[in-house]
Amino acid sequence: MSRREELAANLAEVEERIAKACEAAGRDRSEVMLLAVTKTWPASDVELLYELGLREFAENRDQEASAKVAQLRHLEGARWHMVGRLQRNKAKSVVEWADQVDSVDSVRLAEALAKAAHAKGVKLDVLLQVSIDGDTSRGGCPVPEVAELAGAITRSGDLILRGAMTVAPLTMKPAQAFDVLASVVSGLRDDHPTVSSVSAGMSGDLEDAISHGSTCVRVGTGLLGSRRLTLP
């Protein structure tokens, strides 16, 4: 089996899972975006997924992503997401390649991204990353601090708050975590009209996420297989 055939088979399986989950939840398939997490995989795999119809791709390391995106500038309509933990000193570099940063979890990071976006003359789409259990060692803003961070993002004038993202904690059932995120996003919509995205669910728990209102599932292993490093 060629790599293209392998990816096509994986994509068909993931699409079937998403479609069935949407049907079970009484939702339309068009309500859920498939975000391909291409971290640690080569640009050639992204090209194949693009040829198979995907347009949204995610990376979690600035060094790897900046090099990969530079190779793939010819992919018209491709959008790039930063989904990993981000240090403030990387903000300028990330703004050069990312169309959206999905892991904004502090006011200081929001300020750094806003400064970088302003210098580049762009409006940067962002998601607020929520720490459902309050353990910020893995990234994320604790739920009680979400409103403050959302306000800082929107006041910047250079960032557009599109929604919120979370990774289900290992100490909690995914469905429970996703229910909390749905409530957080519902509250954000009251004060921030640009908010619409609920980014939740990965290869192992996308069905639970879709049943709790996810509008974006982040799938890496389910599409590409086990990880392998492309850069040291």
TrEMBL record:
Stored InterPro entries: Ala_racemase_N (IPR001608), PLP-binding_barrel (IPR029066), PyrdxlP_homeostasis (IPR011078)
Family affiliation: Belongs to the pyridoxal phosphate-binding protein YggS/PROSC family.
Cofactor(s) named in the record: pyridoxal 5'-phosphate
Keywords: Pyridoxal phosphate
Keyword ATP-binding: no
Protein name, UniProt field: Pyridoxal phosphate homeostasis protein
Residues recorded with modification N6-(pyridoxal phosphate)lysine: K39
Residues annotated as signal peptide: none
